[in-house]
Every structure is written in structure tokens, then in C-alpha cells.
Amino acid sequence: MAFKAFWRNDLVTAPTLSRDADDVASQQKDPKRAARKAKADAHRSLITEGNIQRGVIAVAVPSVATMLLQTTNGLLDTFFVGSLGTEAVAAITVSGSLMFALMAAAMAVSVGTTALVARFIGEKADADAVTATRQSIILSVLISVALGIPMFFLRIPLLSALGLGDDALQQASRYLAVTIIGMPFLFMMLILNGAFRGLGDTARPFWVSLLANIVHAAFNYLLIFGHFGFPKLGLAGGATALAISQLIATILYLAFLPKTPLADALRGGWELDWEWAKRIARIGIPASAQQLIRVGSMLAFQALLARSGAGAAAVAALGIGLRSESIAFMPGFGYAIAASAFVGQNLGAGRPDRANAGAWAATLQAVVVMTLMGLLFAVFGEEFARFFIKHVPGETAHQAAQIEETIRLTAAYLHIAVYSEAFLALGMVLTGALQGAGETVSPTAITVISMAVIRLPLSWLLLNWYGPIGAWWAMSISTIIQGVMVVYIFRQGKWHQTKV
């Protein structure tokens, strides 16, 4: 479905670097800057000109590879932690959900950064893209400190409220303490990643993720188990490894930034500009609310599982199932990034028809990839489960039974999830396209309906009737409904009128 191109190019009135005579002169004096601009223009034309399918693939493939690296990283994390027992897996599952809740604030800034940078790059207003990136970095650091301090002191009451037993609660508390300390680097990493997404540059984030994942896996091995003279820290060692890898990723992003049109983002004043902060927040706050609703619903879902007859086994099965399934849905994130860049930059260039076509090209490619991978899990569900959680020497009969129950529930989760995989792809990629346009309100409303209004009540009902298997069906049904609703909203076409 095509839309008429009527985006007003006068929405941003600030002078742009590419049209400014002084900037042209400075480029002539600085060959490196001129070369950087030529490379950026060539990359920009990949998104705003030429064959759409090839353009989507060129942007999406490195992004999908990056997401698969991050998924592999999470799977290795679960593999290492799985050797510590079911309680440790339950602890990291719930702790991770709390961290995702905190990351909702970073998501607000990151989504705003991506939408603004993409729009300005499409308009060739590089100066505004630079300012948006600098202000986003400042805002992210301030928010991470403001949220991290109270969360550090409230972590034990929060974990207790989520139904963890004493052993899992103590492990989760130690894990959270370390990850919260590393939050400023986590937030900066996410914002810089958002800036690169706006550029449509998905190759450099791949190399960042590759090195960061190697560091994470190495320190997991060293610090969880105490190899080669390192202290044996258990789950806290896994948190330390994660924080170190986030620091490395942040440093690498900062090293790559001078090679992009955003090179000047690290120069100039570092005072927070409230007008820019409000501009970023106007786009990002609905996305942040969407993340909070999603995470809050998942925490409530985990609490229902924790209080069910299966208890820690059901929570651990959810964690292993989600991490395993993430091999399938991480490509969806990669294609969502491609859709976001295509929509944002083409709207900036005054080409809404191309923005629409790029979004659908990314979506259909994601549907094919994710459906095929979901089928793989349906066939080998039990094998995936046994890879991540194993029997340990000296275990009691109760522990052995709990491990077998976790494996059974994980395999069931993966068998049921395949029915909603294509709809998950629709929802993920088209939501990314809407966010690239700066439209974040309607995806938030859809999340409220699908997760809070539909998933939780249905989960409670089916959990009481059929146990955790019923809860898995509730997840799948709500995912299907969410995908259908996102398609409906996107096809209305109102997103191409969004102002940033």
C-alpha cells in the first residue's frame, strides 16, 4: 500500500551541515572529514535510493548477526549459570526482568535518539543529529544514576515480593547489586547503539558486540567458577562479567563514533539542554512506558509461576525457554532496526512511499526467518532444555526431580511458542518501523491491551486449569493478538505524519 509523499521538509529549521557554505569550506580543508562525509552519503543512499530488498538486507544482516551474537551471549550466560542449579537460573531470570524494568528509561532515550538521528540524517541535517546524540548521552548518564541508587537499596524487598525462595533471593540480590553499579555504562551503551541505528550503521555494532561477548564469556568462565586463580564468585561473578563487557562495549562505541557523521558529538559543551531533553522524551516516554508495561507484565507472569505448584521449576523453564527462543526472535530485532532506519531516513528525505515499502520488506523477511527457526525449536525442544540445565553430582532426589520438571516445562514452552512466531515477527518489525517514524504512542496502547488486559488474566485462568502449560498457551495467544493489532495500526498510515 502506497502513501502520497507530503512530509513537510520545513519541520526542522536549523541550518544543516551539508548545505552550509562554511561547512563545505571546512571539509575542503579537512580531507578526513570530507572522506567521512562521502562515506556517510554513500551509506545514506543505500537506504533512501536503489533496490529496497537489497537495501533492507544490507542493513538487516549485520544487525541480525549482532542480535544473534547477543543471544549467544545470553545463552552462554544461562549455560554457565545452569551448572549452579535451578535456584540460580530462577534468580537470574527474575533479576534480569528487574533490570529490564530499569532499562525502560534507557529505552526512552534510545528510541528518541534513533528517531531523531534517522530523521536528521535523511534530511541531511547532520548538525542536529550530532546535538541529539550528545544530549542523549548526557541524559542517559543522569537517569542511570537517579534510578540506580534507590534500586540498589530496594532490591531485596522487590525480589522478595516477586516470590523467590530464600536461596534464590540471596543469589539474585548479589547479582543485582553488581549489575546496578554498572548501569551508567549500560545506559551509555544503549544510547550509542540507538544513534548507530539511526545512522543505519549496523556493521560497527556487530564488531562491538563480538568483542564484548568474548569478554563476557571469558569472565563468566573465570569469575563464576574461579579458574586460573580468579575468585570463585558464583552468580555474582556472572554479574561482574556482564558489567565488564558493557564497559568494553561503551568504550568501543565511543572509539567508532568519530568515524561517523556524529563525530562532533563528543565535542562541545556537556550541559543538559532542556528543550532537547523534552524533544527526546516526547518520542521516548511512550516507548519507555511500553517497555515498563511489558516488563511489569512479565514480572507479574513470573510471580504467578513462582506461586504455582511448579514454583522455581516453572520460573527456570520460562527463563531457559525465553533465552532459547531468543535465537528465533533476535533476528526480528535486527529487522526491526532495519525498518526503523528505513522509515526514519526516508521520511526525512520526503519519501514516505519508500519508507512504507522498506518496512514491509523487512517485516516479510523477518517472518520467514523467525518461522523457520521456531520450527527448529518445536522439533528439538527437549534437547535445547537439556543443554542448559543438567544433573549435578551428589544431587538429591528432590533436586533431580526438579531438574526433570524444568526440562519438561521448557520443552513444552518451545513447542507451543512456534504457533505465534510469525505474529511475533509482525509485531516486532512493524513496531520498529513505527518507532523509526517517531510514533510510539500506538505501540504502547497495543502492549497494554495484549499483555496487561489479555495475557495476565488469561494466564491466571489457564494456569489454574492446566498448570504452566496453560500459561505458555496464554503467552502464545496474546502474542498472536498483538501482531494482528500492530499490522492494523501500521496499515492506517498515520505514522508518516508524525513530527519529531
N to C succession of SSEs:
HHHHHHHHHHHHHHHHH
Number of helices: 17
Q: What is the count of distinct domains?
A: 1
Distance from first to last alpha carbon = 24 Å
Q: Helicity, in percent?
A: over 70%
- Mean pLDDT across every amino acid position: 81
Q: Please, could you describe this protein's structure?
A:
81% of the residues lie in helices and 0% in strands. The chain has one domain (51-494). The two termini are 24 Å apart. The protein has helices spanning 21-29, 31-48, 52-82, 86-123, 126-161, 166-181, 183-199, 203-225, 235-256, 274-306, 312-348, 352-379, 381-388, 397-417, 421-436, 441-466, 468-492. It is mostly helical and 500 residues long. It is built from 17 helices and no strands.
What's the gist of this structure?
The chain has helices spanning 21-29, 31-48, 52-82, 86-123, 126-161, 166-181, 183-199, 203-225, 235-256, 274-306, 312-348, 352-379, 381-388, 397-417, 421-436, 441-466, 468-492. It is mainly α and 500 residues long.
